[in-house]
Amino acid sequence: MTTKIAIFGVGLIGGSLALCFKGKPGITVVGHAHRPESLKRIEERGVVDAATLSMEEAAADADFIFLCVPVGLLEDYLRKLTELPLKPGCIVTDVGSTKASVAACAAKIARPGVHFIGGHPMAGSERSGVEAASTLLFENAYYVLTPSPDVPEEAYQRLEQLLAYTKAQIVRVDPVLHDEIVGAISHLPHIIAVALVNQVRNYNDGNGLYRMLAAGGFRDITRIASSDPVIWRDILLSNRDVLLHLLKDWNREIEGFITLLEAQNGEGIEAEFQKANQFRSELPERRKGAITSLFDIYIDVPDTPGIIGQIATELGLRHINLSNMQIIESREDVPGVLRLSFRQEGEMERAKAHLQSLGYVVYV
Ligand SMILES: NC(=O)c1ccc[n+]([C@@H]2O[C@H](COP(=O)([O-])OP(=O)(O)OC[C@H]3O[C@@H](n4cnc5c(N)ncnc54)[C@H](O)[C@@H]3O)[C@@H](O)[C@H]2O)c1
Ligand SMILES: O=C(O)C(=O)C[C@]1(C(=O)O)C=C[C@@H](O)C=C1
């Protein structure tokens, strides 16, 4: 018996999910695109078994439907799907970065025999589009599911079982609580990064030295300011109330620093850094838990677009399992350093040998 998975919106997240499922025993992955250009990109990238512009065709007989479109479109897609003849027992899920509004909409239009289970993989990137999709994206990351109490345990477990292909760790959270927490640890940081970049951009208009001298610290804190504007417009508007509260708290934090500086309170400044240092050191690496990386290698990489994808693909093609990768330093015109982590020493050795054979400088 074949399990059909339909993915609506085959971009970074939809494409990465498709790659996790495609080729697994008894699974067929069908991608839906809203316009011919997107269809062509999905087909060229080869992340699905079949792609279509027809919602009906994609949804027909699907056992699982993943909605991976921008948050602002989720409710519209849910409503349209509800009007289609879905397979009895079909599980509809989404990957949106906010969960309360889509959960409320699903509750309103619920229909017997179709189960909606909200989802949110806590992994991503500032890149977007199917070209950035990767099988490794979700590995060891947390994947939040927000089932309503009406969802049968059997349906929840079916979804959990399927998501095992992502190698993510599933965690069940209430949708409203999800939005409060993710507002603080993901949405607020995106706003801060964008505001900071735009502040410096304004100074740079008067003197180009700002951009020229911007180094590791500025890059580290602002990577996410390069995220997709439409995706983030929708996320912020969808979590507006939570964010308005968080921004008031943020203003208080900044006011605190103004007071410390005005009073030249060195001890107070030290105390703030110490508190932050302590909490940050307790974060699981890359917000990933369960399995710790044991074997690391470091390689010099030129600062060129797509280089990390190329390295991951090279290792993937040789079935070398990467547990983590991180850019330690990346400056314009200067090679960056990439840390690759492996769970097995043998995999690290194979990766090292292969990357050296490709001409990379590798350090252990
Ligand atoms: N980017 C991240 O880090 C991240 C992480 C977790 C969850 N999410 C969520 O995943 C979802 C997809 O985000 P992404 O990063 O994959 O974005 P993306 O831009 O890479 O993909 C979005 C997909 O939706 C399609 N789409 C865009 N406009 C459309 C329209 N008008 N009608 C129909 N389809 C349209 C695009 O063709 C594309 O395939 C969002 O809901 C986002 O909140 C993103
Ligand atoms: O790593 C990044 O670039 C991300 O933005 C990923 C990130 C996050 O903020 O952590 C962004 C949005 C998601 O909904 C989940 C994860």
Give, in order, the helices and strands: EHEHEHEHEHEEHEHHHHHHEHEEHE
Helix content: 40-55%
Molecular shape: globular
Whole-number mean pLDDT:
92
Terminal CA distance: 47 Å
Total beta strand runs: 12
InterPro entries: 6-PGluconate_DH-like_C_sf, ACT-like_dom_sf, ACT_dom, NAD(P)-bd_dom_sf, PDH_C, PDH_N, Preph/Arog_dehydrog, Prephen_DH
Keywords: Amino-acid biosynthesis, Aromatic amino acid biosynthesis, NAD, Oxidoreductase, Tyrosine biosynthesis
Domain Prephenate/arogenate dehydrogenase: 3-291
GO molecular function, one term: prephenate dehydrogenase (NAD+) activity
Briefly say what this structure is.
This is Prephenate dehydrogenase. One of its GO terms (molecular function) is prephenate dehydrogenase (NAD+) activity. With 364 residues, the chain is of the alpha/beta class.
Task: Describe the overall structure.
With 364 residues, this protein is α/β, with parallel strands linked by helices. The strands form two sheets. An eight-stranded mixed beta sheet has the order 3-2-1-4-5-6-7-8, with helices on both faces. Strands 10-11-9-12 form a four-stranded antiparallel beta sheet. The termini are far apart. About 2% of the residues have low confidence. Bound molecules: nicotinamide-adenine-dinucleotide and prephenic acid. The site of nicotinamide-adenine-dinucleotide has 25 residues, from helix 1, strand 6 and helix 10. Pathway: Amino-acid biosynthesis; L-tyrosine biosynthesis; (4-hydroxyphenyl)pyruvate from prephenate (NAD(+) route): step 1/1.
